[in-house]
Specification:
single chain, mainly alpha, Rossmann fold, two-stranded parallel sheet
């Protein structure tokens, strides 16, 4: 989102779990399109709240998995936040071996890019 549309919109990446480390395959396939994730750390909704971040200040939650959709919808009831669900394929289930796994991660990455463009338009036009 930040790479394609700039930093004029406040965006946070939040997951259901707080894994902290970003998967190496995610880092590799995002580097291919100029998105740097190596220093990125994931955090959960609970971590955000514990850190004092006001979830009610967000206008939209984009959920990428059924679990995150369920949690986002639960939060939306209390905070009146719009929730969109983008059913992105889970890349961790894709194939054996490095090349098959990379192909699976690329497919998920490309799904996310298509959804971004569908929702917010061509990144070149937004610049």
């Amino acid at each position: 989102m930040k790479k394609f549309y700039g930093t004029g919109t406040y965006v946070q990446s939040v997951g259901v779990e707080n894994d902290m480390e970003i998967d190496g395959f995610s880092i590799a396939v995002c580097e291919e399109i100029g998105v740097e994730l190596a220093r990125h750390r994931s955090r959960s909704f609970d971590t955000m709240r514990e850190g004092g971040e006001d979830i009610s200040s967000f206008d939209l939650i984009v959920a990428l998995s059924p679990a995150s959709k369920a949690m986002a919808e639960d939060l939306a009831r209390f905070y009146h936040i719009e929730v969109e669900y983008w059913p992105i394929m889970d890349p961790t289930t894709g194939g054996e071996g490095r090349e098959a796994r990379l192909a699976s991660y690329r497919q998920s990455r490309d799904q996310i890019v298509r959804e971004l463009v569908k929702r917010w338009g061509d990144p070149k036009e937004a610049a």
